[in-house]
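C-alpha cells incoming
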C-alpha cells in the first residue's frame, strides 16, 4: 500500500499502525539519525528521540490536536530535533554539576547563603508570588531554562504549542501588573 503524507493522520485514527510506523521510520528516521549523529549522539539516541516524537505525534492525532496545516514528515523531524536539543541542554547542565568536586563542599558558603544576597531572592519570590505557581513554572521554563515550546507543552500537559504561548502571554501580563501595582518592588528590582 502506497501511503501519502496527507493520509497518515487518518490512517492512525483508523488504527493502521502496522502500515504507518514503518513508513514513518523509512521517511523520517534517517534524517533524525543523521542530525543526532552530527550533534554528539548515537543511533540509539536518535531511536529514543524518534520514538518519543512518534508518541507525541500519535497522541496529538488521536486527540485531534494535530494541526493539518503541518506536513507530517517535517513536523516529526522538528519535534525530534527539539527533543534532542533539550536533552543535550539538560545533560550539559547535569555534567557540569557532576564536575564540581568535594572541594566545593569545603569552601565558604556561596553568596546565595549570605543574608544580603538572599534579600534580592526574596524580592523576586515576593514579586512572583502574586502570579501563581503555574505561571512561575512556565516563566522559569521559558525565560530561565529557555526550553522550546514543544518541550514545555509536554512537561506541563498543554494540548498545543499555541496554548503554551497563550498562557505565557497571560503570565507575562500578570507579572507586568504585579510590577505596576507594587512600585516599591519595582524599585528594588532595579538594584538586583
Amino acid at each position: 500500500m502506497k501511503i501519502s503524507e496527507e493520509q497518515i493522520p487518518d490512517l492512525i485514527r483508523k488504527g493502521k499502525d502496522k502500515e504507518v510506523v514503518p513508513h514513518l521510520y523509512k521517511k523520517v528516521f534517517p534524517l533524525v539519525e543523521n542530525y543526532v549523529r552530527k550533534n554528539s549522539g548515537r543511533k540509539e539516541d536518535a531511536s529514543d528521540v524518534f520514538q518519543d516524537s512518534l508518541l507525541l505525534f500519535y497522541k496529538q492525532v488521536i486527540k485531534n490536536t494535530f494541526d493539518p496545516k503541518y506536513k507530517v514528515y517535517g513536523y516529526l523531524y522538528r519535534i525530534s530535533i527539539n527533543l534532542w536539543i533539550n536533552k543535550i541542554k539538560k545533560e550539559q547542565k547535569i555534567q557540569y554539576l557532576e564536575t564540581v568536586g568535594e572541594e566545593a563542599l569545603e569552601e565558604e558558603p556561596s553568596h546565595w547563603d549570605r543574608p544580603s544576597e538572599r534579600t534580592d531572592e526574596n524580592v523576586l519570590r515576593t514579586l512572583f508570588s502574586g502570579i501563581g505557581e503555574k505561571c512561575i513554572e512556565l516563566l522559569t521554563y521559558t525565560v530561565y531554562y529557555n526550553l522550546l515550546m514543544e518541550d514545555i507543552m509536554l512537561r506541563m500537559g498543554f494540548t498545543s504549542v499555541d496554548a503554551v504561548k497563550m498562557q505565557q502571554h497571560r503570565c507575562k501580563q500578570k507579572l507586568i501588573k504585579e510590577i505596576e501595582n507594587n512600585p516599591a518592588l519595582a524599585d528594588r528590582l532595579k538594584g538586583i
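note: The mean pLDDT is 78.
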